[in-house]
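Figure 2 data, in text form.
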Amino acid sequence: MLTLKRALLVLCVLMLAGCATVQPDFEKPEVSVTSFRALPSEGMAPRFLIGLHIINPNREAISLQGITYRVSLEGRKLLNGVANDLPKVPAYGEVDFSVTATADLLGGFRLLTDLLQTRRESVTYELSARLDLGNYLPYVNVVETGELNIGAL
C-alpha cells in the first residue's frame, strides 16, 4: 500500500511538472480588422463580412479551433458572430481571413438614437475576440479599441 501511495505521488509530481512546461513563453497573437463590407441580407438583420489579420509571434504554429467576436460602438453591441473553419497560423507568420457577423438591430437603433440626440465628431469602437487555440493552449482574449471620426460624414 505504501508503494502505491509513493507511485501516485511521483505520478502527480511528474504531471504537474509537465503542465508547467507547456508553452511557458507563449505570446498572445495580435488580431486586427483589415476590411469591413455589407453582405446581401437573408432576413431582417443585416450581415457583414469582416476581414481579420492575425499575427503569430510564437515559434510554433497555431491551429485556430474557433473564434467568437463582437464589435461595439459607443458601448453598444452592434455586431457579433462565431467561426470554426479557420486557417492555421504559421510560426512567426501571419494570416488574413474573413468572418461574417450579424447586426444587433436593437443595439443599432439605440446607437442611432444616441447619435441623433447628441452631436459628436467621433465615436468609440471596440472589437473583442476570443480565440480558441486548442486543448493544450489557453484561450486568447483580444480587445482592440479606438475612435472613428464621423465629423466628415
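Caption note: Strands lie at 30-39, 47-55, 62-63, 66-73, 76-83, 88-89, 94-103, 122-132, 140-149.
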